[in-house]
Amino acid sequence: MRWLTALIVVTLAGCTSGQPNSGQPNARLAAVKQAVGEAAAKRDAARAECVRLYPDANKRPVTPRVKCFNAASYAFHSATDRIGGRPSRDISRTHNARRLVASERYDKGELSLAEYELEMANSTTASISQLTERHNADAAVRAAQSQAAAARRQATAATLSATRPTTTNCNTFGGTVRCTTY
After folding, report:
1. 3-state secondary structure the chain
2. pLDDT in tens, 3-58
3. Distance separating alpha carbons of residues 40 and 38, to the nearest angstrom
4. What are the φ and ψ backbone dihedral angles of 111, each rounded to 5 degrees?
């Protein structure tokens, strides 16, 4: 899950670094990194407690273990959403709900161990895909905004250049004529 923490830091930093005149982007990035690090440390401690309480990941009933991990995940995503103002809590909730449903079905005997592990893996894969798609969409929007701003600047420069009066000065050097327009 370290990759998820890294993705969140990069995403949150991207949300703050693109703000014009944000004052101190390096200070903001440092604050985001620190806050996400603290949230990750709390999440890791909560997960360690879950492992201590429920050491066997596949021993029935698995639902209490899944609920324990879900609580740690929800607390982490809530904290990171508050830091960056980027709601990804919906993806976390969906992931946690899928895991909880799979664990309840496994506890009832409706799923074999292999089917349970497949459901858990599918939930994780779907969540990673959704987070990545959201991050990529945000990056595409920022790139389009940057491109539009560059086009506006270029159009303004062209307009100013076209409306500015020009002067042409020509000088003869031997058999060559050199003209300069300014």
Report:
1. CHHHHHHHHHHHHHHHHCCCCCCCHHHHHHHHHHHHHHHHHHHHHHHHHHHHHCCCCCCCCCHHHHHHHHHHHHHHHHHHHHHHCCCCHHHHHHHHHHHHHHHHHHHCCCCCHHHHHHHHHHHHHHHHHHHHHHHHHHHHHHHHHHHHHHHHHHHHHHHHHHHCCCCEEEEEECCEEEEEEC
2. 555 555 555 555 444 444 445 678 888 888 888 899 999 999 999 999 999 999 99
3. 5
4. -125, 140
Q: Encoding tokens for residue 66? A: 């899944």
Task: Output the pTM of the full model.
Answer: 0.66
* Residue ranges of domains in the chain: 2-181
CA of residue 45 relative to chain centroid, distance: 23
How many residues can be counted in the chain?
182
Tokens standing for residue 130: 């959704």
SS (H, E, C) 86-128: CCCHHHHHHHHHHHHHHHHHHHCCCCCHHHHHHHHHHHHHHHH
